[in-house]
């Protein structure tokens, strides 16, 4: 009885090891700053945090053209949303970032996403209060280059809450 169990157990372990070895092949991992980033040919996940000092943990991240990208933003601060809310907004190439940010100041009703600039946005998360998380998935642009992301809460971009998504 015990022997039969052991044999079965050993086989199961071998099978598991085989699966893990397969999973390890062909998968590339890369890390941008202190944020975790996992990429493969078709899919990339980028994790960002935002804090009470108006900073993203990662200010430069890379994806491949045409990749499906999932961005996860977590507000790790503790100040109230009305005073220190954060979002993650990715703008199209050639977007007027300064003008976008200026328009965002008066867009409180739409969580600081200015309606007039909707067509300059590739993707954005919700505006997050303390300890909240949101994620957004989008297709990376087909055109390689540098795309600006920012937090559009008033004054945060000016304080440095911005970064670059590099499309390779
Ligand atoms: Cu912010």
Structure commentary:
By secondary structure, this protein is an alpha+beta fold. The chain has a single domain (28-167), classed as Sandwich (Immunoglobulin-like), CATH 2.60.40.420. It contains 3 helices and 10 strands; from the N terminus they run αβββββαβαββββ. The strands form 2 sheets. It has a 5-stranded mixed sheet with strand order 1-2-3-5-8, with no helix packed on it. A 5-stranded mixed sheet has the order 4-10-9-6-7, with no helix packed on it. Strand 1 and strand 2 form a beta hairpin. The longest helix is centred in the N-terminal third of the chain and has 23 residues, at 2-24. The protein is globular and about 40 Å long. The chain starts with a helix and ends with a strand. The model is unreliable at 1-36 (pLDDT under 50). The structure holds copper (II) ion (CU). Copper (II) ion is lined by residues 50, 54, 86, 151, 153, 156, 161.
The order of strands across the largest sheet is 1-2-3-5-8
CATH architecture: Sandwich
The fourth-level CATH homologous superfamily is Cupredoxins -  blue copper proteins
In percent, how helical is the residue content?
10-25%
Largest sheet: 5 strands, mixed
Radius of gyration: 20 Å
């Amino acid at each position: 009885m015990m022997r039969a169990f052991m044999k079965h157990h050993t086989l199961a372990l071998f099978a598991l090891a085989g699966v893990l070895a397969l999973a390890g092949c062909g998968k590339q991992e890369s890390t941008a700053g202190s944020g975790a980033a996992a990429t493969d040919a078709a899919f990339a996940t980028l994790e960002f945090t935002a804090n009470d000092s108006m900073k993203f943990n990662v200010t430069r991240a890379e994806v491949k053209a045409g990749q499906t990208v999932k961005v996860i933003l977590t507000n790790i601060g503790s100040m109230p949303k009305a005073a220190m809310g954060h979002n993650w907004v990715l703008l199209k190439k050639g977007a007027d970032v300064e003008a976008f940010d200026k328009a965002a100041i008066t867009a409180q009703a739409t969580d600081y996403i200015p309606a007039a600039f909707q067509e300059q946005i590739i993707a954005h998360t919700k505006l997050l209060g303390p300890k909240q998380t949101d994620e957004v998935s989008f297709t990376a642009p087909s055109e390689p280059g540098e795309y600006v992301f920012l937090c559009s809460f008033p004054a945060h971009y000016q304080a440095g809450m911005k970064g670059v998504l590099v499309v390779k």
